[in-house]
């Protein structure tokens, strides 16, 4: 599809889906960066940053109702946790299912694998000792435990940690954060917690910006320190950022109240369960039942 | 310290989930009825801050690094119950959005970092606050509280991993304790820095001392433990009816240790989660759960009681 790199001019058909990069114009300047097109929004393109990098892609998985994605991922995770250690066929089946979801969602497979593999070092450390159980620690005991089939326990810990991470990662990576919050609201998460999550989402970026500008300010003044002084500096930095954000939040909250905020967060988009959602839930439930029953 | 799924066995994560769900339910009610709305904004900003700061790594000896967790700091600023809600929200978002920590294990993660850490930190800080009202006493209190909160959370994590039969007790307690005793120093310095800054700039925001003088803390702790005990009892029923996934395969593949071989809990007073001398296995395991929790409850109640007595004496003198 590289022949179609023509930028985002008017009148040109929108053909490319998924992440791509070419010179284009927006905000009055020509530039090139990775971006993707928003589902159903015509020529508009969007680029998520950081953890939201792939949430604005346009794909059948992205179009699913957030509730069905959350429920599917949670049900599948619980089934994997509750099931006996996965046999090779079951493991291959679940991984194939999850990776095909990633392909459908147009997520880069390398990113999905690398990101989900982050859990392996921690899980692996504990898994090494799992065959010993809660027993005593000795080299002889370890050798004996492994030779008696204890490696199955180590394998179970690592494989389950990885697969559940993969499942949750796919749900989160294909859902824009505001919709994810809307989905949680639909799943009856307490309103106080939702309000906090919404504020967290709003302030995380501004806190991040403040943090990086503070770091730039320090670096540009030739500030270089290590060890405990650095830790102390973090404390003061945390204090400054906290007061600044709090005072801003006080103003924002007063503004929200004066505009009739009653504790609910209205959004234009209504959540609706449709046929693809039923299909996704059915697949997740079938896979979970198969894992538990066979 | 975020436990992924697959590491804990079903009864451990299930019990932890029920216990944390009860605590979160109480915290939601507490915030809804007793915390005014302006302070909810403070909670939300603090949640975002804790979240952002958890991304800052600082070096610990030996090339490893730790990061700020924020349980104690949140409790010092907000008091323990709002802190439970803030930390639970942060941990839930981390599990759902960042796949950091498992879904089944989320209950245990909330228990360790969202309940144990804030309460441990708040207890220590309010003890120090009673020793002296000077700035120095408060800063020292914040430092020790944060260190204590970090180590307590690490110990709770280690205990859960051990209870799940995934590692020998001395190993998990030793390694988690060692690293978190070091990480706790960093946490303590950052927390003390944050509290010192707040004392200088907005002392009105620090409310833990007022909260500390509420007389019903012990009653609340008792209610929480009661809920957890009920949950544990309910879960033991389920747990004893079906074998654990691992035990199931162990039985099928035949790698269970030979009869009579020393198993995990053979030397503990309640071997294999059963109260000895009771015929009915289900009943025995339910009782074992309740006995364990009752012991914890008595210990906690004694601690709170002692703290209250001391406070009473301090007031009279």
Descriptive account of the structure:
The complex is a heterodimer of chains A (294) and B (317). Chain A is mostly helical and 294 residues long. Chain A is globular, with a radius of gyration of 24 Å. Chain A has helices spanning 66-82, 88-104, 109-116, 120-129, 139-173, 177-186, 191-220, 228-258, 275-293; strands at 20-26, 29-37, 45-46. The two termini of chain A are 43 Å apart. Chain B is mostly helical and 317 residues long. Helices cover 73% and strands 2% of the residues of chain B. Chain B is built from 11 helices and 2 strands. Chain B has helices at 10-34, 37-53, 71-78, 80-97, 106-131, 135-163, 169-201, 208-212, 217-241, 245-253, 281-316, and strands at 57-59, 65-67. Chain B has a two-stranded antiparallel sheet. In chain B, strand 1 and strand 2 (65-67) form a beta hairpin. Chain B is globular. Chains A and B meet through helix 1, helix 4, helix 5, helix 6 and helix 7 of A and helix 1, helix 2, helix 4, helix 6 and helix 7 of B.
Brief summary of the model shown:
The complex is a heterodimer of chains A (294) and B (317). With 294 residues, chain A is mainly alpha-helical.
Mean pLDDT over the full residue set of chain B: 75
Sum up the overall morphology of chain B in one term.
globular
Most extensive interface: pair and counts?
Answer: A-B, 84 and 81 residues
Assembly category:
heterodimer
What structural class results from the helix and strand content of chain A? mainly alpha
Helix content of chain A: 55-70%
Structural class of chain B: mainly alpha
Please, how many helices of chain B? Answer: 11
User: Termini of chain A, distance in Å?
Assistant: 43 Å
Q: Helix count of chain A, per DSSP?
A: 9
Q: What fraction of residues of chain A sit in β-strands?
A: 5-15%
Strand order of the largest sheet of chain B: 1-2
Radius of gyration of CA atoms of chain A, rounded to a whole number: 24 Å
Give helix and strand order of chain B, one letter per element, not per position.
HHEEHHHHHHHHH
Strand count, sense and barrel status of the largest sheet of chain B are:
2 strands, antiparallel
- Beta-strand percent range of chain B: under 5%
Low-confidence stretches of chain A: 1-15
């Amino acid at each position: 599809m590289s022949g179609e790199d023509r930028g985002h001019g008017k009148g040109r058909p929108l053909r490319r889906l998924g992440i791509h990069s070419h010179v284009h114009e927006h905000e009055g300047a020509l530039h090139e960066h990775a971006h993707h097109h928003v589902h159903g929004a015509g020529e508009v393109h969007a680029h998520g940053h950081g953890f939201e990098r792939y949430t604005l892609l346009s794909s059948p998985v992205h179009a699913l109702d957030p509730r069905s994605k959350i429920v599917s991922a949670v049900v599948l995770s619980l089934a994997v946790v509750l099931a006996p250690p996965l046999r090779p066929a079951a493991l291959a089946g679940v991984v194939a299912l999850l990776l095909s979801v990633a392909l459908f969602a147009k997520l880069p497979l390398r990113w999905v694998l690398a990101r989900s593999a982050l859990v392996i070092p921690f899980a692996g450390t504990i898994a090494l000792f799992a065959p010993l159980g809660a027993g005593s620690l000795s080299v002889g005991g370890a050798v004996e435990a492994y030779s008696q089939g204890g490696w199955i326990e180590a394998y179970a810990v690592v494989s389950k940690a990885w697969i559940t991470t993969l499942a949750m990662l796919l749900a989160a990576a294909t859902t824009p954060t505001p919709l994810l919050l809307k989905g949680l609201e639909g799943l009856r998460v307490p309103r106080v917690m939702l309000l906090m999550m919404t504020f967290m989402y709003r302030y995380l970026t501004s806190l991040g910006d403040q943090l990086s500008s503070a770091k730039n300010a320090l670096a540009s003044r030739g500030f270089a320190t290590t060890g405990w002084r650095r830790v102390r500096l973090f404390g003061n930095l945390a204090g400054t950022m906290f007061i600044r954000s709090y005072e801003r939040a006080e103003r924002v909250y007063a503004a929200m109240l004066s505009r009739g905020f009653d504790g609910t967060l209205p959004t234009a988009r209504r959540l609706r369960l449709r046929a693809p959602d039923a299909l996704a839930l059915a697949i997740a439930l079938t896979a979970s039942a198969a894992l538990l029953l066979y | 310290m975020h436990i992924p799924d697959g590491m804990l066995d079903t009864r451990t994560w299930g019990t932890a989930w029920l216990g944390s769900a009860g605590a979160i339910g109480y915290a939601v009610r507490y915030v809804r009825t007793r915390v005014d709305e302006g302070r909810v904004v403070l909670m939300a900003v603090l949640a975002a801050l804790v979240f952002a700061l958890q991304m800052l790594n600082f070096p610990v000896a030996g090339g490893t690094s730790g990061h700020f967790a924020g349980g104690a700091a949140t409790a010092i600023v907000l008091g323990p119950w709002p802190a439970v809600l803030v930390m639970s929200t942060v941990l839930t978002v981390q599990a759902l959005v960042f796949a950091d920590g498992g879904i089944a294990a989320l209950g245990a993660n909330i228990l360790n970092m969202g309940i144990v850490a804030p309460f441990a930190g708040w207890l220590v800080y309010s003890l120090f606050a009673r020793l002296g009202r000077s700035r120095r006493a408060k800063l020292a209190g914040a430092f020790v509280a944060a260190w204590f909160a970090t180590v307590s959370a690490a110990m709770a994590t280690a205990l859960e991993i051990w209870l799940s039969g995934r590692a020998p007790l001395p190993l998990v307690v030793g390694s988690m304790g060692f690293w978190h005793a070091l990480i706790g120093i960093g946490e303590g310095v950052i927390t003390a820095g944050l509290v010192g800054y707040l004392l200088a700039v907005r002392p009105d925001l620090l409310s833990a001392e007022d909260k500390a003088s509420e007389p019903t803390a012990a009653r609340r702790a008792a209610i929480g433990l009661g809920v957890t005990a009920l949950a544990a009892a309910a879960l033991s029923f389920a747990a004893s009816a079906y074998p654990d996934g691992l035990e199931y395969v162990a039985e099928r593949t035949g790698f269970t240790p030979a009869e009579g071989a020393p198993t995990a809990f053979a030397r503990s007073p309640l071997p294999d989660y059963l109260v000895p001398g009771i015929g009915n296995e289900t009943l025995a395991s339910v009782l074992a759960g309740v006995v364990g929790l009752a012991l914890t409850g008595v210990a906690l109640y004694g601690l709170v009681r002692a703290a209250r007595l001391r406070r009473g004496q301090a007031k009279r003198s």
